[in-house]
Design goal:
Number of domains: 2
Strand order of the largest sheet: 4-3-5-6-7-8-9-10
Shape: globular
CATH topology of the largest domain: Fructose-1,6-Bisphosphatase, Chain A, domain 1
Largest sheet: 8 strands, mixed
Bound molecules: 6-O-phosphono-alpha-D-fructofuranose
Length: about 300
């Protein structure tokens, strides 16, 4: 079944369905850039990170499409310093976008992706207010995974650029995989204890450097992804709005959970689009373990 028909069959809000379709239609456009716009641009984003030419390409493609559609009022992206308000918006939706997460891996042909958070209004609200989330993963296959609160569903792009259903009502299984970001030498004591606990239980390490690809793996195989707070960085590295809340919404809807280590990340109210956050995302067992270790550590 094609994405558009599936959205209708699920009784998805029509405006939300139109928005999801709009993102699906950009996948092919963004992929076309992979062959031409590789390598680093001569600019940095607001986080001081070198922007890859493709980051900027994907950002422009998505912002232009959203502006032209007028389907959203607020646009925040990892590549833009400020929130964009769309003139003449016909809906009140807000979107948070990491246009090309893991983009530095394109030149070594690893999977990267577009991450999108869908909000009913302005985006500086907790993730638990979201009306949905989606991500497009550019790997051996190009897939689109979305949720609007009634299950997590995965589609695969055909040669014609259209997405057809691959898996309905995806749920996170139990699995012994962990994807540990940050340097071991910088681990804080509670995090070191957590990682050593997983390793003592035989968890296998899988870490590609692409958050969206690594969380996709955890979503399908079980286990946990973490990019924690670490020495000198109490908020860790990853972005609350562009990585944490969208993928946290997705994994939570699939029966998993996401935490800052101290509590549900989806309860956190952002202070700015540039907020960073420690992230633990995956199976409920692993999330309960880190939260109990943090609680017991008194930090
Ligand atoms: P490190 C990619 O730059 C990213 O934002 C995430 O996709 C990924 O999980 C993380 O950074 C990798 O960070 O410090 O291991 O290079």
């Amino acid at each position: 079944m094609e994405l558009n028909d599936f959205l209708k069959e699920k009784g998805t809000d029509e405006k939300l369905a139109q928005l999801i379709m709009l993102f699906s239609e950009q996948a092919g456009v963004i992929k076309e850039g992979f062959l031409s716009a590789r390598g680093a641009a001569d600019t940095k984003n607001v986080y001081g990170e070198t922007q890859m030419a493709l980051d900027k390409w994907a950002d422009e493609v998505l912002i232009d499409a959203l502006r032209e559609s007028r389907l959203v009022r607020w646009i925040a992206t990892e590549e833009q310093p400020d929130i964009i308000e769309v003139e003449g918006a016909i809906n009140q939706f807000g979107v948070t976008i990491d246009p090309l997460d893991g983009s530095s891996l394109i030149d070594v042909n690893l999977a990267v992706g577009t991450i999108v958070g869908l909000y009913p209004g302005h985006v500086l609200e907790p993730g638990n207010t979201m009306v949905g989330a989606l991500y497009i993963l550019y790997g051996p296959l190009t897939t689109l995974t979305y949720t609007t609160g009634t299950g997590v569903h995965e589609f695969v792009m055909g040669n014609d650029g259209r997405f057809t259903l691959m898996q309905e009502n995806l749920t996170i299984p139990e699995g012994k995989i962990y994807a540990p970001g940050a340097l071991r030498k910088d681990y804080l004591p509670y995090h070191k204890q957590f990682i050593e606990q997983l390793e003592s239980e035989g968890y296998k390490l899988r870490f590609s450097g692409s958050f969206v690809a690594d969380v996709h793996l955890i979503l399908h195989k079980g286990g946990l992804f973490t990019y924690p707070a670490f020495a000198g960085k109490d908020s860790g590295k990853l972005r609350l709005l562009f990585e944490g809340t969208p993928m946290g919404k997705m994994v939570s809807e699939a029966g998993g959970a996401i935490s800052t280590g101290r509590g549900n990340l989806l309860d956190v109210k952002p202070t700015a689009v540039s907020d960073r956050t420690p992230i633990y995302v995956g199976g409920k067992r692993e999330i309960a373990l880190i939260e109990s270790i943090v609680k017991g550590s008194g930090t």
